[in-house]
C-alpha cells in the first residue's frame, strides 16, 4: 500500500474524529499520523484543514453525488469522499491520482468492499465538476452560511456584532494564517534577526515591536537560534500582551491560564527580574509551559492550579500585574483551528461568559491597589469581551479602565475600538495581519 493512500486514509480518520466524535484537530492529528513520514503527515493535515474551512460546500457536493447518507458503521467512507473531493477541488492533485489513491485508501479504513462506490462518486464529480460548482455558486449567493463556510449560529452572531465587517472576518477565517515569530530582544534586535534569516535564505518581513512574519511556513526548529530560545512562534496579536501590561523590573506578576506559555516567556523577555507565577488548570498543557521556559532559559513559578479558586493555591501576597488570558470561544483564531467552527456550540458561549466572570472576579482579589490586570481573549464575540468588562466595571467599585497607550506601529488596520470611552482593543482576524484578540486594561484604585 502506498504512502499516498496512507495519507488519504489518515485524513479521513482525522475528519471522522473531529466531526463524528468531537475531538480537536490537535488531538486527532497526532493520534492518526504518528506512523506517517513528515511530508505525508503534512499532506494529510493540509487536506483536513481545507475540508474544515469549507465544510458546508463539501457536504453540499456529497449530498448531490450520493443518493442517501452512508450508515454509521461505514461513515468513515463519507470522510474519505470529502478527502477525495478536496484533492480535486483545492489541492491541485491531478484527478486520476486523487481518485486512485483515495480508492486505494478504502482498504486502509477497512472498507475494501466500498472501493467501487468511492471510485464512482469521485469520477462523477470529475465529469460534472463545472456544472456542480456553478450550481453551488448559485446556491451560495442565497445562503451565507454556505458561501462563507460557517455554522449558522456563529454567522448570525458575527453579522450582529460586525454588520460592516463580518464578511472580512469570515473570509480571513478561511485562509491559512501567516507564520509570525517573536524575537527575543535579549539576544537580537528584530533587524539583526531579520539579517540572520536573510543569510539563511529565509524570506521574512518585520512587524510590530519584535514581531517578524515569515513569507512561507517551515519547520520552525530549523530557524536560526530557535533551540537556543532566540526566537519563538507567536502570533502578532498575542505579542501585544506583554507590551500592554508593561510590567516593571522587580514586579510580582501572575500569568493566569498560562498554557502553553508563550506570553509567560514574553513577559520575562520583555522585563528583567520579574517574579512571575504561571498557573493553568491543565497539567498536560503545563508541560508546554515548562518546555518553553527551558528553551528560552528563563524562570517562573509554575503551578497546576484553578484560576477561579485562588484559595486552593495562592500564598496571600498580592500581585503588581495580572495577565488573565481567559478561557474563551477562540473565535478569533479559527483560521489556525478551523475545527472550532464545528466543535463549538451556541450554548457554549453563555457557559464561557459565566466562567470568565468567575475567574475575573477571583483574580481581581489578588491584585494590589494601584496594580493592573490585563483581561484578554482570543475571541471576537462581544459577550466575552467588551460586554464582560462593562458588566465588571458596573459592579466593582475599585476598578477603572486604563487607556491602552502603546503604539500600533502602523498596524492598526484590524483594531476596532468598540467604544472610545471604554478604551478596550478588539482586534479582528486579518488576512495579512494578526489573529482576533481582545485586550482591556484595568487598574485597581488605591
UniProtKB/TrEMBL annotation:
Protein family (similarity comment): Belongs to the class I-like SAM-binding methyltransferase superfamily. RsmB/NOP family.
Taxonomic lineage of this organism? Bacteria, Pseudomonadati, Pseudomonadota, Gammaproteobacteria, Alteromonadales
Q: Which InterPro entries match?
A: MeTrfase_RsmB-F_NOP2_cat, MeTrfase_RsmB-F_NOP2_dom, NusB-like_sf, NusB_RsmB_TIM44, RCMT, rRNA_ssu_MeTfrase_B, RsmB-like_ferredoxin, RsmB/NOL1/NOP2-like_CS
**Protein name from the UniProt record:** 16S rRNA (cytosine(967)-C(5))-methyltransferase
Which reaction(s) are listed as its catalytic activity? cytidine(967) in 16S rRNA + S-adenosyl-L-methionine = 5-methylcytidine(967) in 16S rRNA + S-adenosyl-L-homocysteine + H(+)
Please tell me one Gene Ontology term that the record gives under cellular component.
cytosol
Binding, S-adenosyl-L-methionine: 257-263, 280, 306, 325
Give one Pfam hit by family name.
RsmF-B_ferredox
Amino acid at each position: 500500500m502506498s504512502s499516498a493512500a496512507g495519507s488519504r486514509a489518515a485524513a479521513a480518520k482525522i475528519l471522522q474524529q473531529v466531526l463524528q466524535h468531537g475531538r480537536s484537530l490537535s488531538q486527532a492529528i497526532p493520534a492518526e499520523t504518528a506512523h506517517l513520514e513528515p511530508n505525508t503527515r503534512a499532506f494529510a493535515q493540509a487536506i483536513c484543514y481545507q475540508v474544515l474551512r469549507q465544510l458546508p460546500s463539501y457536504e453540499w457536493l456529497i449530498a448531490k453525488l450520493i443518493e442517501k447518507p452512508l450508515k454509521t458503521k461505514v461513515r468513515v467512507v463519507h470522510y474519505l469522499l470529502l478527502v477525495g473531493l478536496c484533492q480535486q477541488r483545492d489541492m491541485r492533485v491531478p484527478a486520476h491520482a486523487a481518485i486512485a489513491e483515495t480508492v486505494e485508501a478504502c482498504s486502509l479504513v477497512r472498507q475494501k468492499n466500498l472501493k467501487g462506490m468511492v471510485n464512482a462518486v469521485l469520477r462523477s464529480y470529475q465529469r460534472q465538476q463545472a456544472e456542480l460548482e456553478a450550481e453551488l455558486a448559485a446556491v451560495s449567493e442565497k445562503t451565507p452560511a454556505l458561501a462563507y463556510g460557517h455554522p449558522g449560529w456563529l454567522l448570525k452572531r458575527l453579522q450582529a456584532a460586525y454588520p460592516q465587517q463580518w464578511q472580512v472576518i469570515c473570509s480571513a477565517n478561511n485562509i491559512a494564517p501567516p507564520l509570525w515569530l517573536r524575537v527575543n530582544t535579549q539576544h537580537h534586535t528584530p533587524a539583526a534577526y531579520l539579517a540572520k534569516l536573510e543569510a539563511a535564505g529565509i524570506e521574512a518581513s518585520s512587524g510590530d515591536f519584535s514581531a517578524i512574519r515569515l513569507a512561507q511556513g517551515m519547520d520552525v526548529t530549523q530557524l536560526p537560534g530557535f533551540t537556543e530560545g532566540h526566537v519563538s512562534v507567536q502570533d502578532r496579536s498575542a505579542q501585544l500582551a506583554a507590551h500592554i501590561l508593561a510590567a516593571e523590573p522587580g514586579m510580582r506578576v501572575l500569568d493566569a491560564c498560562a498554557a502553553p506559555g508563550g506570553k509567560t516567556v514574553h513577559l520575562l523577555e520583555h522585563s528583567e527580574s520579574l517574579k512571575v507565577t504561571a498557573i493553568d488548570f491543565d497539567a498536560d498543557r503545563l508541560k508546554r509551559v515548562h518546555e518553553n521556559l527551558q528553551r528560552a532559559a528563563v524562570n517562573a513559578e509554575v503551578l497546576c492550579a484553578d484560576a477561579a479558586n485562588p484559595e486552593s493555591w495562592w500564598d496571600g501576597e498580592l500581585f503588581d500585574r495580572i495577565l488573565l488570558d481567559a478561557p474563551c470561544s477562540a473565535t478569533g483564531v479559527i483560521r489556525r483551528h478551523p475545527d472550532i467552527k464545528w466543535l463549538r456550540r451556541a450554548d457554549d458561549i453563555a457557559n464561557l461568559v459565566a466562567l470568565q466572570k468567575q475567574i475575573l472576579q477571583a483574580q481581581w482579589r489578588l491584585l494590589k491597589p494601584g496594580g493592573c490586570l490585563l483581561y484578554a481573549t482570543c475571541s471576537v464575540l462581544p459577550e466575552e469581551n467588551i460586554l464582560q468588562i462593562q458588566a465588571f466595571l458596573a459592579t466593582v467599585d475599585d476598578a477603572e479602565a486604563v487607556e491602552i497607550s502603546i503604539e500600533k506601529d502602523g498596524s492598526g488596520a484590524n483594531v476596532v475600538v468598540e467604544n472610545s470611552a471604554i478604551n478596550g482593543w478588539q482586534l479582528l482576524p486579518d488576512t495579512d495581519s494578526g489573529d482576533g484578540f481582545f485586550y482591556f486594561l484595568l487598574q485597581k484604585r488605591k
